[in-house]
Request: fold
Amino acid sequence: MTWRGTYGGWPMLRNSRVVGSQMVTRSCHRSRSSLRNKTIKVTNAPASAPAVQGSTAGASATSPTPSASSPSPAPTQALAPASVAAFGPAGLADGDDPQGAALAVAGDPARPWISQWYATAQFGALKNGTGLLLDMGRTVTVSSVRVSLVNSGADIDLRAGSRPDLAFLPRVAGASNAGGTVRLRPGTPVHARYVLIWFTKLPPDNVGTYRASVYRITVQGQR
Reply:
């Protein structure tokens, strides 16, 4: 084995110098190539991450769903009638106390509208009813009607329609043995121009006869 000089203070063999140099050079080439390949892989990795997909999913999860708002129903109010008239089975021709009909909406319990007196609660078999017809002036939506009575024990029908004729005024609500202030409310609001407070049974008065007495009628609804 022949020695040939030194390298970095270490003795070197003649035959091993070339081999050593080639090995170091190849090793450096492999290391650089390996580092270059590794650098490319690390640099390219974030580009393949689905960052856009994650952002889109998050936005769709938090976006509010638009909803159509429905309009609020109009509030009810007291509707003043254009006129009030006494009404009988034959219509406006045979109502009780037609001159005092306006007192039924005046609101004074000391001065009510009073029907004729009858010997029985069923009108002494002379007729099948009596009442008050309110003309609202035009078609309105009726939600309820309050009737204030002087005496208790009346049967009342609320009828409403488009013509001042009993046949065109169907029953929409009613009350039995009513007294004080009674509320007559249809199952659903009705559209009508005419509102009829119709007594089918009279309450007793304080002198032994039967008659109806009304001092306030309030119609609730919408125009």
